[in-house]
Amino acid sequence: MGFVEIEYRALDREWNMASLHSHEYYEIYCLLEGERTLIFENKKLALRPRSVAVIPPSCIHRTEGGAYRRVNLYLSPGELNEAEVSFLDACFHLVAFEPVGERGELFFSLLESMDEDYPTASLQKKYALHLIKSLICFLRGAELLPLPTECLTTSEKRGDEAVLGVVGYINEHYREPITLERLSELFFVSKNTLCRSFQRVMKCSVMEYCSLVRLNAAKRFLTETAKGMSEIAELCGYSSANYFSLIFKHNVGISPREYRKKR
């Protein structure tokens, strides 16, 4: 069985994720109380109570904000049937939403039964899997009201507004050579301003983000295709297969070939 987990968390203070991250499983983020800001790809949106966001595998993201209470559902794609995968992928295109109606109420009534004493750690995976699939079933039967999304793909001002535009550019052009000089020219912002703003908004440097995008793309090619190392290196913006293998092992801990074999 793949990765399956239900995680309850409540904090009575502000908490911001230290850095961007991604994972190889679906995350269904269910906010019960409080307000959080979700940043992923080149989008930014405010989550409100009783809202849900579906984050698919390899999606780079993080959250920030004040006190909150939430439940996260984690599930490997291999544990889902075709209809469930199609539904979760469609939810991702909605970005974030509020489930309403009778099925929406059933969905949140199950989540509200969980607290810090909920024995998620001791639940056997098969029971956690059945519970998550039941929650997905309720979502599929609910009316999903999309939340408004702030999508900053272009820059109208210098500074913060340019950051998500740069993120969007990297997501689209990671196969190509990317430099700070080129980005500062494209988005009409100085390199120093771009670096400071990017670090503050994304909690990493521009080049660190670029590396993360390339590594995620490489993981997808390794697990979803039979392409050779030289071709994957070229498709992901690395200068050679040897350099790709060196960077991959340094960041992931194993070589690309070992990674493919394990999956």
Give a concise summary.
This protein is α+β, with helices and mostly antiparallel strands and 263 residues long. The protein is built from ten helices and eight strands.
Characterise this structure.
- α4 packs across α6 and α7 crosses α10 (256-262).
- This protein has helices spanning 82-94, 101-112, 125-141, 160-173, 180-186, 191-202, 206-224, 229-235, 241-252, 256-262; strands spanning 4-11, 26-40, 43-47, 51-55, 61-75, 96-100, 143-146, 150-151.
- Residues 151-158 have low confidence and may be disordered.
- Strands 1, 2, 3, 4, 5, 6, 7 and 8 form an eight-stranded antiparallel β-sheet that branches.
- It has ten helices and eight strands.
- The longest helix is centred in the C-terminal third of the chain and has 19 residues, at 206-224.
- It is globular.
- It is an alpha+beta fold and 263 residues long.
- 46% of the residues lie in helices and 22% in strands.
